[in-house]
Amino acid sequence: MKKIVAVLLALIATVSFNFANAGDYSQRDDVNQFIERMVSEHKFDRSYLQALFAQAEKKQSIIDAISRPAEKTLQWHQYRKIFLKPRRTKQGAAFFQQYHDTLLRAEKVYGVDPLIIVAILGVETRYGALRGSYRVIDSLSTLGFDYPPRGKFFRKQLEEYLLMVREQKFDAAELQGSYAGAMGYGQFIPSSYRSFAIDFDDDGVVDIWDNPVDAIGSVANYFSVHHWQSGAAITGRARVSKDRDHSVITKSLKPKLSLAELAAKGYHSVEPFDSSEKATVMQLQAEKGEEFWLGLKNFYVITRYNHSHLYAMAVYQLSREIEKSVVNLPAKGQ
């Protein structure tokens, strides 16, 4: 009898857990207010949205993941090890070779360094191998309605997502992405998809999930719109003076002081950059001690993709490692 009771209690607990996890969002007041706004502002069918949110599931693992982003918890030498691995570099070189015609076409059209495009895809999804296994509707519903610190942002992304799937005739309940609702090879959030994703192979579909050609073109377009400077430098090491001004270190991702002004504050570029170029100073904790780097305008553009100097540095250094591994790399501009 005790065994039967124990089994029944375990079954009840499992059912209760699954029900709580599913969490019928269509029955919540805040979700219904969101639905009403989508109906009134964007002419969505109410019954369609109610049925969609009845399927959406709250995922605690999503909240756990967003609460501990690597960019905010790791030192540079720890963060670097995640992305700067021989295997990822080798895969990046292979990806470059496989899609070199598309990458060079993207460079010609948008002026963006193809190695940076490949590095972005390498850091984001390991060239499409890790595109995310969460349903986007679950990610954005969970973060939009059950993660107050950034609820407003993710409700906006949920709005963009619903507009996106309607425009592209996708199934809103099926698309998958990261815990934060980022999608495809380049991990575009819905607003980025609507603004920057393109049909780069002219097949009539903007597919960043399964079409690397569209993914390449979309990343290039993103960088172009954010004012990537073709052929310009990205970053370089700095020598520092003992009496340097500590207040300028990583004060802003956006370059505000010229290299000449930074030199006067104790940060001297190792590279022969134009002294009038604006830059930002970064202090990185490497395995063998502190490193100082100067981030130029193109470095800042990389941070528009992910607002972290660690992320941008990982992209830059991975691109340089891939460059060393690519056989018969075409000359710049070819």
Blueprint of the fold:
Elements: H1 2-22, H2 29-42, H3 46-55, H4 60-66, H5 70-73, H6 76-83, H7 86-98, H8 100-110, H9 114-125, E1 134-135, H10 136-146, H11 151-168, E2 176-177, H12 190-196, H13 212-225, E3 235-240, E4 257-258, H14 259-264, E5 267-269, E6 278-286, E7 289-295, H15 297-303, H16 309-325
Antiparallel strand pairs: 1-2, 3-5, 3-7, 4-6, 6-7
Features:
334 residues; alpha+beta; Helicase, Ruva Protein, domain 3; two-stranded antiparallel sheet; 16 helices; 54% helix; disordered N terminus
Structural notes for this entry:
It is a single chain. The protein is α+β, with helices and mostly antiparallel strands and 334 residues long. The protein has a domain at 19-53 and 132-182: Helicase, Ruva Protein, domain 3 (Orthogonal Bundle). The chain contains 16 helices and seven strands. The protein has helices at residues 2-22, 29-42, 46-55, 60-66, 70-73, 76-83, 86-98, 100-110, 114-125, 136-146, 151-168, 190-196, 212-225, 259-264, 297-303, 309-325; strands spanning 134-135, 176-177, 235-240, 257-258, 267-269, 278-286, 289-295. The strands form two sheets. Strands 4-6-7-3-5 form a five-stranded antiparallel sheet. A two-stranded antiparallel sheet has the order 1-2. A hairpin with a 2-residue loop joins strand 6 (278-286) and strand 7 (289-295). Helix 7 (86-98) packs across helix 9, helix 9 (114-125) packs across helix 16 and helix 15 crosses helix 16. It is globular. The termini are far apart.
